[in-house]
Amino acid sequence: MAYTPTMSSTKSRRKVAPAAADNGDSGEKLDQLLLSSAISNGEDVGPFVRKAFASGKPETLLLHLRHFSRSKESEIEEVCRAHYQDFIQAVDDLRSLLSDVDSLKSSLSESNAKLQAVGLPLLTSLDAFVEARNVCRNVNLALQSVRNCIRLMELCSRSNYHLSRGNFYMALKCVDTIECVFLDKTPSSTIKRMLEKKIPEIRWQIERKVMKDFNDWLVEIRVVCRNLGQLAIGQASSARQREEDLRIKQRQAEEQSRLSLRDCVYALEEEDEDPVGDDSSNGEGVDLTPLYRAYHIHQTLGVEDRFKQYYFENRKLQLTSDFQVSSMTPFLESHQTFFAQIAGFFIVEDRVVRTGGGLISKLEVENLWETAVSKMCSVLEDQFSRMQTANHLLLIKDYVSLLGVTLRRYGYLVDPLLDVLSKHRDKYHELLLSDCRKQITEALSADKFDQMLMKKEYEYSMNVLSFQLQTSDITPAFPYVAPFSSTVPDCCRIVRSFIEDSVSFMSYGGQLDFFEVVKKYLDRLLSEDLDGALVKLINTSVSAVSPAMQVAANMAVMERACDFFFRHAAQLSGIPLRMVERGRRQFPLCKARDAAEDTLSGLLKQKVDGFMTLMESVNWMADETLQNGNEYVNELIIYLETLVSAAQQILPPNVLKRVIQDVLSHISEKIVGALLGDSVKRFTVNAIMSIDVDIRVFESFADNQAPLLSEEDANQLKSALAESRQLVNLLLSNNPETFLNPVIRERSYNNLDYRKVVIISEKLRDPSERLFGTFGSRGSRQNPKKKSLDLLIKRLKDMA
């Protein structure tokens, strides 16, 4: 509920009023204390002033301030009362001291007068001494200046002397001494100004003269680099040639050892001369004095870095100009100068790195070399892509490999150059194969198919011994007729040249074991190019027995030559011969050899066919046996004996055996074919007996070849007549039906075709009573042989 004031409440508030007044008084006292405390502590009284004016009672503040000042006045009075006696006493003390001071003053005046009287002569003497000392000092300074001037003049004179004599370093040292030691000490301002003007001029003049000599050296060093590069590469070539000579001696020793000539001892001695150590090829003979003098002078002048940069930029420009390949001159003619210039450049730079004292860093030279390698590789790539002659590629490759050998000695990395050479290995061999293919074609087309005549021993050595074609170590008598034609040594020379060029290209190219590569391309040359050319020659140009026999003889000799080719490639490649002999492969000219023998056999068969036409005059119904055989046999045997007599002079026994065996087999087939042919309707036993005589003559001919062949080969010749021999034996057998026995047939008639046996057996008819009985006596007993033959025919027909 709401509060309602009452009378009682009013009374109560009035009772509180005195307490409120008391509270006001205590508040003023508190403000007075706070103000006094702030003033005593030196604090800001601004807040009290603002509070007084804000409350509208500034009088109270003034009252408090007056009260504070009155309280402090009383304190001051108390302090003054406390110190008054001390002050009075101090004033009394000062008055007593005044008299003592006056007496001291008078004493000091007397002492001063006495001192001045005594010190006046001393002061006069001192002034004279000081003046004399100043004069002495000035004289000493004058003497020192004179001495400095004398030394300065001596240095100037010495500097002029060194300048006139071209001793620029000594002149610069004199100038530096003048500038550092005497320039500030020069008493004459005129001389000092003159020196300050002339010293820079002298330095500039020295630098200009040194740079002139250095620029002349830059021009001359290009010619020197080219000559130096040619000399270094030439010495690398000489060293390589000596290595090749040592290898040749080593191969000769190995060959003698292989032939078991133990009484021969070979000593491979190296020559003492060491051209690699020649100073001129190492860059030691190059005059670098102008370069080093210019570098030293610039070091003395304090512009070492500027000269380094100048030298590097100019040498870099020279190297860049060396990269230019003239389009007016064939690269084959200019490649040696091109590579020799670059080689000489880096030989000189190698020496500058080693002896130049930091003129050019190894890293900078390596950067230049990387640039040079990149440029040389691009030039080689471009030039190789244009070349179409293997010999040109080989010449440039040899020179580049010599460049690599030369610069590798100085620590330069030449692998990228060798990689370019390896990259064009296939192209080189393709061009080389193409050249050899043309040479082989020309050599074969020039062959007359005549045995080669050698009148002198050097011809024998050049055409036989150099290719190891001899069959005996005994030198023949001259004139000597070789079993081969001129084609053989001509082709051998072409193949040997191919091997040597291939090995030369592969050698010193960074690949150590390159025999397999040489062997691969040698196989291609022999098995594809030479073999194909020989086959083409045989198929197109050989149409007579004599040329065919000569070609077959050539192929037999080429088989020995091919063994030599692979041994020669291995020797040049540094491969032991035993490894080549262990991995020997088949004859690479087997197609040409087979074609030659087939052609010879075919031509001989044609000749035989001409003689076999005489079989048309054989009396197949003869009543008597010809004891000497038929007429064709005698003429054919005479021809065969003549053929063998000529063939044994040039054909090896194995080839002669294969040819004769093929011919005898053909004769056997012709005999069987004659009996099988339609021209022979009937024949008698007497005719077969005559054929038996003919076959014996051929068998005797085969036996007569035993001195030329082995006994086994002679038996194989006789086996070529097996079909005709077995057929005659069957027809003359008393029990022909034994042909049906598998064991007997396999042992005695294994070359007979039962179909041919049926046809030929049916033609055998003989009216003789002694043999088969007469057809007129039908009731008589049948001949057992005839009965056996009829049974054989019947059984064979049933089998068919």
TrEMBL record:
Keywords: Cytoplasm, Exocytosis, Transport
UniProt keyword Cytoplasm, yes or no: yes
Predominant location category: cytoplasm
Residues in the signal sequence: none
Xref: InterPro entries: EXOC6/Sec15 (IPR007225), EXOC6/Sec15_C (IPR046361), EXOC6/Sec15_C_dom1 (IPR042045), EXOC6_Sec15_N (IPR048359), EXOC6PINT-1/Sec15/Tip20_C_dom2 (IPR042044), Munc13_dom-2 (IPR014772)
Keyword Transferase: no
Pfam families given in the database record: EXOC6_Sec15_N, Sec15_C
Compositional bias ranges of the Polar residues kind: 1-10
GO CC annotations on file: cytosol; exocyst; membrane
GO biological process: acceptance of pollen; Golgi to plasma membrane transport; intracellular protein transport; pollen germination; pollen tube growth; vesicle tethering involved in exocytosis
Subcellular localization: Cytoplasm, Cytosol
Region entry Disordered, spans: 1-25
Chain ranges of the MHD2 domain: 630-743
Family to which this protein belongs: Belongs to the SEC15 family.
Protein name in the entry: Exocyst complex component
Source species of the chain: Rosa chinensis
High-level lineage: Eukaryota, Viridiplantae, Streptophyta, Embryophyta, Tracheophyta
